[in-house]
Amino acid sequence: MAQISGDNHGLRLAVRYTVLGLIALIFIFPLVFMLMSSLKPDAQLLSDTRSLRAFLPVGDISLDNYFDAFRRAPVGLFIFNSVIVTGVTVALTLFICSAAAFAFVFIDWRGRDLVLTLILATLIVPFETIAIPLLLIASKLPWLGFDGLTYGWLNSYQVQIVPFIADGLTIFLFVQYFKDLPGELIEAARVEGASWWQVYRRVVMPLAGPVLATAAILKFLVMYNQYLWPLMVVQEERYRPVMVGLQYFFQLNRAWGEIMAYLSLITVPVLAFYLFLQRAFIASIASTGVKG
Amino acid sequence: MASKFTRSNSTGWLMAGPAAALMGLFIVLPFLFAIGLSFTNQRLISPNPTQFVGLSNYSQLLGVGLLTLEPERDDAGEILRDEDGATSYPALRGYTRNNPDFPQLDGMREWFSFSLGESRTYVLARDVVFAKAVVNTIIFVLVVAPIQGGLALVLALLINQKLRGINVFRAIYFMPVVVSIVVVSLLWRFIYDGQSGLLNNLLGALTFGAFPRIDWLGNPSTALGAIIAMSIWQAVGFHMVIWLSGLQTISPSLYEAAAIEGASKWQTFRYVTWPGLRNTAVLVLIVITMQAFALFAQIDVMTSGGPLDSTQTIVFQAVERGYGKQDISGGSTISVILFVFVLAISLLQRWLTREKK
Hints:
Chain A is mainly α. Helix content of chain A is about 70%, strand content about 5%. Helix content of chain B is about 60%, strand content about 5%.
């Protein structure tokens, strides 16, 4: 009797893993196809789609497509631009939004509740509904740079960075996290004569590791994957990020291998980063779901 | 914490001020601009001064009309038919071009038509492309929200099992979420390709060649469906994780109690799991709806709105006009209409899933 139920258990386990595995194939096959195809010459890439060879590194394997992609477009420049825009925005977001959340949670000031309500209300405004008027505003804003005072932010780094520094979701995440910190700690530090800046830097931020990771990951994903906005405001190659740089490739229909190489090049670092910090990535998304 | 040590107007404004100012300038101001500009004829660059045009942008986009026509008859009262035997009707142009009897139809074009008995009813729109974009977007939202939300819940329940190595599967299901939708869209053009597409090859292999090859993105009847399937594939892992965090807030003691009572799997789900997920369900639906209304990148990369406008969407139209044609006021009007949709649906979902007391 025990023997039979043991077999039954083993069978059920096998069924469960089979189901999970088949679903995993659905999610992974396009990415495997991308990576494998990036290593193949165009003719072989197309003929391989008729069999499982499409997902295997077989036949004439080389990195030629990658070299050709670099020759076709300033790929290095696009990657550099994306790194600058993403890195600077994430850093500024963490600072500006955590400072704001600190003021909302720990400091008592006139107008606090109204400002916080307004900021949280922006969560229901999708970026797509403000993109067009924002384009008009961005085309007229002044900027004090190395060449003096200029008007119009189109074709620049700042047009890709500044509008995205402060956002309601990040402030919300910091506010939620700060609320769970012991308020007495902050008040005690104040009673002992610490300035607000010292409380922020030496008491609160050292405790904010998890929420900083969450906010950084979410912002990183949003910024690195930006498409609509840079498409509209960056026409010059000089400031073009990787996702818009893709246009170089999808306008030519035949160079499939090069397209796959470029896609792999801009995707693999993010995937590696994700697999490395998998728990933190998933915890970040999950934390946006707390307190619906 | 209302002590003198925590009170400071200047520090409060100093620390929250930068974020508030940035959000005011880059979110609130453009939002108000969108509303204001929708009543003007503003262009990105124009030699002429901007003028107030009232509601004409809205009537231009949203104007629809109905026209029912009787078949043409000869002198004996017999219905006239063309060579194919189809009933012939008076030309629409006669009603929509400078016809003093039908001023409200002036400038409209046929959107679609249907027959009732002998007469034929024409649904006319002032802007047929935008009308199609609205309908496509609503179809997209209505299909994606329940299917994506439901599949995400199924995946979350699967992943919530206690099995060795379950985290590996969770990591894989979530993987497409971190890949840019632009990359995903370009990749899926391969899968949907009519010649050497992976999907056609797979279906052909499964049916031993019986399944006809389909150009999934080039066919008006399959293009939107193909984009829907891909969009769900890309984003379902995101909502799986949100469901999962909801599942983990349900107390294990409730499941133990259900087990002691001898509840079946379905009963446990129906009376323990699902009630515990109410708040999560609202959040998942609202987030999916907002993301779905914003449908743009997939269209831009895969179809540019075609074939035959079968994949036009509201945001694609807003960008095509506001940016492509530099018609800021037209793009802004579309943005305002989009916002009204998003707000209405969010409120409706909140109301439908409200807690019944």
